[in-house]
Write a structure and sequence with these properties.
Chain lengths: ~240, ~240
């Protein structure tokens, strides 16, 4: 059984918004960077998988931030894999500040896909192979929640461009999160309110596609659905707390 | 008189496009990060200036890349200030790969603005104050060129959103560069052709403004103008070589 890995970060100027605190989408980016770093360091990163014609694909993410750290603040991200299902593996994160206080946490669920067939690989074997990378510690908060129904009242469009796409020519995960936060009022996304984001990636969006983001606000909860012109591609909720 | 400072970087996965080479806008980002790092380390970064109610504003940039480094390649960025005019200071950069071969270079020109008056500060005094940060070595290529006339033939629109803005609530420099590369054909921007970018920042664009990007192609040169609905805000050219 492995140890929990921790990575130290500093809130770099390119991660802050005009309040000089880290933007929420930037913190989501750090979570994903940490996942990549840790998987790479343990020998099952995207590069190692690519050699076997596979890749990790983020299926769902839940991110809670109690507050946003300030520019140049240092913090630590601890990460561990708690389980492998047949289709999804669960990678967890806690964020702690320099004094050791936890200020955020995340739970991500990943599928492994075969790059030719573009279908999910059965993870049962992988789970056994990576057994010594697993940690017997539960997720630090609820796993990503299902978002059952959305009745959008406002829509914005977004064309998928070069700066949006990843190594697969698909819309980059973080750009979807940007779209969500871009669609809420500036005062809200730049506030210091605690927040929980749940996001489900259902289908890929390709370069050139015109996306439609539909939003519905229910008090402190914003619900989102992104359609790529053919089908629903992403569903998300952002819950503002306190 | 100071030494030239060098900073080591690695092409991180979040900087590459689907060709697994660094995207040109990402390299422009590294140039600006290096400028920030170096100024911060030498005591005249944005943070020190803010304490005096001033800030650096990028006025013009020229970036040449002979080729784009591959993911995980290491490289070094050397940077030095060669001169202070009354309004603009010139900061230079060379990019060299692990074998010591130069593969890119940049020249940037910066104004210092008073944050209340939002007007340029006379740099004559600053030049004397920072004399020991200056290096007697010429710029590694032509300074940013004037772009005299543009007759746009195509237009795209872009609303300035939260993810576009910087600590001043203005459109972030890098997002303008993204807009340019997003407006050219994917095969071109993801090619390994040598390239020179010249960009002039004329006016600020604010959150919520609807920008219009006009483009004109003259063989291997693409000319761009960005209007913020009130006035011309940015003018740029991208020259594809070899």
């Amino acid at each position: 059984m492995s140890e929990i890995s921790s990575y130290k970060f500093c809130v770099e100027p390119q991660k802050v918004d005009f309040t000089l605190c880290a933007a929420i989408p930037a913190m989501a980016g750090v979570i994903l960077d940490t996942a990549g770093l840790d998987a790479h360091g343990k020998g099952f990163g995207v590069d190692a998988l690519n050699a076997r014609n596979c890749s990790w694909v983020l299926s769902r993410m839940a991110l809670e931030l109690d507050r946003r750290p300030a520019q140049y603040d240092t913090y630590e991200v601890a990460t561990w894999i708690s389980d492998y299902g047949r289709v999804l593996s669960t990678r967890n994160f806690t964020l702690t500040d320099a004094s050791g206080a936890e200020f955020g946490r995340a739970v991500t669920q990943w599928a492994m896909i075969d790059l030719t067939a573009r279908t999910a690989v059965d993870l049962s074997g992988v789970g056994r192979e990576h057994a010594d990378a697993m940690i017997d510690r539960p997720s630090p908060t609820d796993k990503p929640r299902k978002i059952l129904s959305i009745n959008p009242t406002t829509y914005v469009e977004h064309r998928v461009v070069y700066s949006d796409i990843d190594f697969n020519r698909h819309m980059n995960t973080l750009r979807y999160i940007d779209l969500l936060f871009d669609a809420m009022p500036l005062e809200l996304v730049a506030s210091q309110r605690a927040v929980r984001l749940d996001i489900h990636f259902l289908r890929e969006c390709r370069h050139g596609q015109l996306l439609t983001l539909g939003s519905e606000q229910r008090d402190d909860v914003w619900l989102f659905t992104i359609n790529n012109g053919e089908q629903e591609a992403v569903r998300a909720s952002v819950e503002w707390r306190s």
